[in-house]
Backbone:
């Protein structure tokens, strides 16, 4: 799956979970998104570094080459909401996902 589609799905899910008292993060796991754990970690790292998500951080262990994502309360930030609203590429991804959904229906 295209990286921008994965990023879009993560941000849209986090936006949808803003009303939930117990957010369900299972739809945005690496497995659910159909990507490797390493790619998922790298994408989450980018989203954290760009300020699009909050409440998550990466922890590094000496015994593992993979960092661990600590998702205390992962949520979309104001900057992430603005990114979803304003980014033309995200609008194209949303349109593509909608078109694919209509084809499958």
Residues:
């Amino acid at each position: 799956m295209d990286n921008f589609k994965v990023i879009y799905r993560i941000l849209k899910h986090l936006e949808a979970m803003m009303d939930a008292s117990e957010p369900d993060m299972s739809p945005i796991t690496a497995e659910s998104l159909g990507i490797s754990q390493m790619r998922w970690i790298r994408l989450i790292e980018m989203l954290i570094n760009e300020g699009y998500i909050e409440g998550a951080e990466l922890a590094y262990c000496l015994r593992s080459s993979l960092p661990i994502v600590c998702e205390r309360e992962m949520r979309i930030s104001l900057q992430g909401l603005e990114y979803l609203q304003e980014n033309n590429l995200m609008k194209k991804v949303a349109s593509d996902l909608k078109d694919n959904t209509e084809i499958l229906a």
